[in-house]
Design brief:
By secondary structure, the protein is of the alpha+beta class. It has a single domain, classed as HIT family, subunit A (2-Layer Sandwich). It is about 20% helix and about 20% strand. It contains two helices and five strands; from the N terminus they run H-E-E-E-H-E-E. The protein has a five-stranded antiparallel sheet with strand order 1-2-3-5-4, with helices on one face. The protein is globular. The termini are far apart. Bound molecules: guanosine-5'-monophosphate (5GP) and zinc ion. The site of zinc ion (ZN) has 6 residues, from helix 1. One of its GO terms (molecular function) is catalytic activity. InterPro entries: Histidine_triad_HIT (IPR001310), HIT-like (IPR011146), HIT-like_sf (IPR036265). It holds the Pfam family DcpS_C. This is Protein HitA.
């Protein structure tokens, strides 16, 4: 995907504060952190969202979750964290390349959602 922001970040065409990479996964600090620890973990290969995944994407989805714990621990959230994957219009997904937010820090991140 030539024109995808997170593809460009994974390729290194746009700079980011990288915290991890392997053949399948790339992770970096969110540019506008919502908590003291706020990482984004993405597949290197373009996947638009959880709404478009296929069976072939299952291994990389597993990798994303598996590295989340390691990255949270290494980056200042050793006592737990939250993973959020916003999906589509209802999920308020702004960047159309699947990404897992890993948020945490020294203090609890608070209730999951405000109840309506
Ligand atoms: P979404 O709302 O799609 O789940 O989250 C997109 C996230 O990407 C936001 O938290 C936003 O701050 C982050 N973001 C957007 N553009 C950039 C960028 O150029 N670099 C980095 N590191 N994060 C970005
Ligand atoms: Zn992309």
């Amino acid at each position: 995907m030539d024109n995808c922001l997170f593809c460009k970040i994974a390729r290194g065409d746009i700079p980011s504060r990288k915290v991890y990479e392997d053949d399948d996964v790339f992770a970096f600090h969110d540019i506008n952190p919502a908590r003291p620890v706020h990482l984004l973990v993405i597949p290197r290969r373009h996947i638009t969202s959880l709404a478009t995944v296929t069976e072939a994407d299952t291994p990389v989805l597993g990798r994303i979750l598996a590295v989340a714990n390691q990255l949270a621990t290494e980056n200042g959230s050793p006592d737990g964290f939250r993973v959020i994957i916003n999906t589509g219009r209802i999920g308020h997904q702004e960047v159309q390349h699947l990404h897992a937010h890993v948020v945490g820090g020294p203090d609890p991140v608070g209730p999951m959602l405000k109840r309506v």
